[in-house]
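1st attempt posting a full record on here, be nice pls
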Amino acid sequence: MTTNEKQLGKFDGKVALITSGNSGIGLARAKRFVNEGAYVFITGRRKSEPAAAAKEMGKNVTAVQGDVANLGDLDRLFAQIKKGKGKLDIVFTNAGIAKDAPLATITEELFDGGIAQV
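the predicted structure (as tokens):
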């Protein structure tokens, strides 16, 4: 049995959330989780992109438009997960914005506006 065959099904019955799961690394991870048995919720800030990614994936995925920096969007997201699946097993936090700043100049406002890179 190959390594890939051993991994198939390792997420059977699991529910995953992948923020910014509509493209790039997030979409690749979402596809992998679905292939390994998970049901996946993906998010993205623009409605069309997560919807297109979910259509591309075809099964075991729900696209939810929302910005993870918006508490109202997060409340709506978690309510949808609870209503749809009743649980959440895995969170893959792929969304984020980086802003460069010297370590000594990082303020709370800068941190809240985006993860600072040192």
